Amino acid sequence: MTSEPTASASAAPKVSFVSLGCPKALVDSERIITRLRAEGYQLSKSHAGADLVIVNTCGFLDSAKAESLEAIGTAMGENGRVIVTGCMGAEPEQIREAFPGVLAITGPQAYESVMGAVHEAAPPAHDPFLDLVPEQGVKLTPRHYAYLKISEGCNNRCTFCIIPKLRGDLVSRPAGDVLREAERLVKAGVKELLVISQDTSAYGVDLKYAESPWRDRSVRARFFDLSRELGSFGAWVRLHYVYPYPHVDEVIGLMAEGLVLPYLDIPFQHASPQVLKAMRRPAHQEKTLERINKWRGICPDLGVRSTFIVGFPGETDEDFELLLQWLEEAKLERVGCFKFEPVRGAAANALGLPEVPDAVKQSRYKRFMEKQQAISARILKGRVGKRLKVIIDEAGPSVAKGRSQWDAPEIDGNVYVASRRPLRVGDIVTVKIERADAYDLHGVAV
Description:
Blueprint: E1 14-19, H1 23-38, E2 42-44, E3 52-57, H2 62-78, E4 82-86, H3 93-98, E5 104-105, H4 111-121, E6 145-149, E7 151-152, H5 163-167, E8 171-172, H6 175-187, E9 192-196, E10 211-214, E11 217-220, H7 223-230, E12 236-239, H8 248-257, E13 263-265, H9 273-279, H10 285-298, E14 303-310, H11 317-330, E15 334-339, H12 358-381, E16 387-394, E17 399-403, E18 415-418, E19 428-436, E20 441-445
Parallel strand pairs: 1-2, 1-3, 3-4, 4-5, 6-9, 9-12, 13-14, 14-15, 18-20
Antiparallel strand pairs: 7-8, 10-11, 16-17, 16-19, 17-18, 19-20
C-alpha cells in the first residue's frame, strides 16, 4: 500500500537513494543525485519519512537481481513510493510481478526518465539561492578519488554476459567532455581518477576517434590520447576493464613515464582456448602471456589485476588444470574469481554444453584461490624493504589505511601505514614496507 506525498509547496522534497552494482552504476547514481540536488531535492538517509525512494539496480547475475529485489522490497515496506532504475529495469516484468505498486521503472542511463518520474511523484521546490551544487557534481565516493566513466555499452558479445542487452552497444563520450569532467574533479580535490567503462580500450571506436576541442587544441577520442591527457592533471590515473587489444601497448609507455599508474585491470576470464571460444573471448592466451612479458619489459613496475570464471559450461578437468598452469606463468598481482552463474537471457544457456556440478565449481574455486593466494603472497613479500607511494583512505591515531599504485579501492589489497605525524585522507605519502601477508602490506611513513 502506498502513502501520499508528504512534501508541501514550501518544503524541499526528500529522496532516499539506494545504489547497487558496479562502479559504472555508481556513476549513474552520482549523475541522478547531482540532478536531484540541482533541482532542490534533499537527500534522506532513511526510507522512512522520505517523499520517495530511488533504487538503482544491478541485473548482471541472478544473485545481483535477488539483491536488487530485496532492496526494492525493503523500500516498499519502509516507504511505499519507489522508483526503480538501472540494469534490472531494462527487463521490468520481474519487478512488476514482485512489486506491482512501484511508481516507475526505467532502464540504465535513463536519467531523463528517472527525473520525469521524480517530478511526477514529488514536484521540486527549487530555491536557486539555497540549492547550491558543487561544480564537480555530487559524488558517492570519498572526496579523494572518483570514477570517471568514458563510455556506455559494449560491442562485445560474450556468451555469459547480458550487458549489451541492458546497456546497448558502445557509445563513447567526446574526449573534451571527459577531460572537462576530470579537470573539475581534480580542482575539487580528487587525487585519483578511476577510468571505467564496459570496454575501456575500445574507447572512441564508435566515434571513429573524432577530435573534440579541449583548451587550446583538439584531442582525439582514442584510448592512448585520452590516457595521456588525463595523466597531465597530476592525479593518479587508474585504468579499469581494459581488453588486451594491440593498441594497449602504447599506453604501457605512459605508465613507464609515470603519467598513468602502472596498473591494468584486464578481465581475462579463462585460459583454455576451448572455454574462451565458448565464451566468445579472444582465445590466444599463449600470445597474451607474451604480451604481458613484453609490457613488463617496457614498464617493470606494471601490476595486472584480472577476473576469472570457473565452472563455465563444458569446462573439463583439463581446461581447469590449464587455467592453473597459465595463472602460475602469468604471475598476476591481483586476481578475483567467480563461480559461473547462469544468467537469464545469456547465450551461454543455449550452447548445449554440459553443466559443471556445483560441488565441482566449489572445488575448482577453492583450488584457484589457493593457487592465486600463494602467487600474490610471493609478489607482496618481494616488496618488503621497498619504498612505495601510498594514497591514504582512512586516517588513524597511529596507523592509517591506504593503497599502493597496484591497489584499486574496495577490490584489491591495502597498505597499513604507521606514522608519527598525522596522516589525512587523500595524502599521498612514501612508505617503507616492513612486512607483508597474503593480501596486504604493512609499513612506516618516511
